[in-house]
Amino acid sequence: QVQLVQPGAEVRKPGASVRISCKTSGFDLNKYPIHWVRQAPGHSLEWMGWLNGGNGNTKSLEKFQARLTLTMDTSASTVYMELGGLTSEDTAVYYCAKEETDGDYAAYWGQGSLLTVSS
Amino acid sequence: SYELTQPLSVSVALGQTATITCGGNDIHYKNVHWYQQKPGQAPVLVIYRDIYRPSGIPERFSGSNSGNTASLTISRAQVGDEADYYCQVWDRVIWVFGGGTKLTVL
User: Fold this and answer.
1) How far apart are the CA of B72 and the nearest CA of chain A, in angstroms?
2) Which of A29, A75, B15, B27 is the most exposed place for a label (fewest CB within 10 A)?
């Protein structure tokens, strides 16, 4: 079955970077876009960007473009989200999600990774 | 950028019908998707492309989309339906989420 597995938690200091992994199984990563969505405590879901599994192309929200990098390792069936220049406002749960073939939505999500940015 | 507006909260009596709205300019031209999120859990897709239910989602959940408003309707509301609900659309090349609605079952 389709699964997206993420690490549980990460802690970083302000100014640092973090790379969060999303290990996929149960489908061909080369055929599906993977999206990243974050949720700050008590806030709504915020879309960050997506990676095209077929060609590795990426697109991200303008506010993140300067410090967000999305990559993939096909041999490991894993997608990575790296966010730099961290501030306390980046404290959030980060989700990866698989886009479905017939539309721009996600039926499968990772369990989420809690990133805490604190000095 | 495209914006989606949801009420902060909706209350419904046990066994009654709840409707959660999602407003957006000419939203009827877009496919609207709905997610349910319970505390500490990842979102779960409950309605996609306006009206379709994924397998495993009860028939009590239904959706509609007309004019400037899309709606998620939950019939015969149960305590287990208490959650935050988010609408989502694709706008050009990005996903947009609504601000979320907290559903309380009284």
Assistant:
1) 16
2) A75
Longest dimension (CA), chain A: 44
pLDDT in tens, A49-62: 999 988 889 999 99
Q: What residues does B30 pair with on adjacent strands? A: none
- CB contact A37 to B (< 8 Å): yes
Q: Is the pLDDT of residue B4 over 90?
A: yes
Instruction: Report CA-CA distances (Å) from B106 to A24, B14, B16, B71, B91.
Output: 39, 6, 10, 21, 36
Residues of A in contact with B49 (CB under 8 A): 102-103, 105
Cβ neighbors of A97 (< 8 A, separation 6 or more) are A4, A34, A35, A36, A37, A106, A108, A109, A110
The Cα–Cα gap between B19 and A119 comes to 43
Rg (CA), chain B: 13
